[in-house]
């Protein structure tokens, strides 16, 4: 009898051990699914305050761009008026009027040559200056620059010293910024006293307009001093002379 009971108990245990685990696995999967769905989604939409801040920044940037363009156009118009007066003064040979366009503290430098090297002349009264290569009055340059209708460009036309005819690929009167002349630093080749070099170094950063007259090859450099346009340098060296 005891032996029969033992066999029966063993059979029941084997039957229980063979039951499928479907319900348990299903519960685990359901639990995992609920846990995944319950995680909150991250919103990428900016808040109302952030949207307002972005709109204000954009409006400010737009206003600054418009103001810069207005200042640029006003400056260009102001310079064109000044330059036409500058040209008229040369044509009239008006020394007193010309001297008013020279900054009293910094003076004007003309760049001329009698050979291959540049010569710098510091001038405060144009009536006393004579061109070094021709021994003529300064205003004799008016014969070479009777007209000059400005055309604004990013960089001045380059000179070509290889040809026998036109030295410039473009003809006319062109205006650009002063970076090319500032970077060239040709005064370093003029054997000037150290004090003169220092004075030129302080004047160069003021240049904001460069004008090239291709017919003569003359170049004029201007800048604002205390809000007034002044002529700072005039390069009268013949192109390809160096």
From TrEMBL:
The stretch of residues making up the signal peptide is 1-20
Q: Give the record's keywords alphabetically.
A: Signal
Answer whether the UniProt record assigns the keyword Signal to this protein: yes
Q: Where is this region: Disordered?
A: 23-51
Q: Does the keyword Signal apply?
A: yes
Per its record, how is this protein called by name?
Lipoprotein
Species whose genome carries this gene: Rufibacter roseus
What does the organism's lineage look like at the top?
Bacteria, Pseudomonadati, Bacteroidota, Cytophagia, Cytophagales
